[in-house]
Amino acid sequence: MMIERQVIVTWYTPKEKLPESGTSVICTVSGKANGCIFERAVIPLEYADDECGWLSYEYDFQELTVHAWCDLDAYQG
Length: 77
Known about the structure:
The protein is mainly β. About 0% of the residues lie in helices and about 50% in strands.
């Protein structure tokens, strides 16, 4: 018998609220990067409140739309 722990998080749209600068969060995104097309994919991003905006350490996005994000604290991230 396997017991799973349910983790409840709150998702925000970037219009509602932005994460603290320099904080890694989980995002649902659409865009183009590294020859791939993302459609509502779930990836980690960091937000920088200077002119950089959303940053990915895995992908070099040429186009990026962040639909929603959630905090990693619930996952002890």
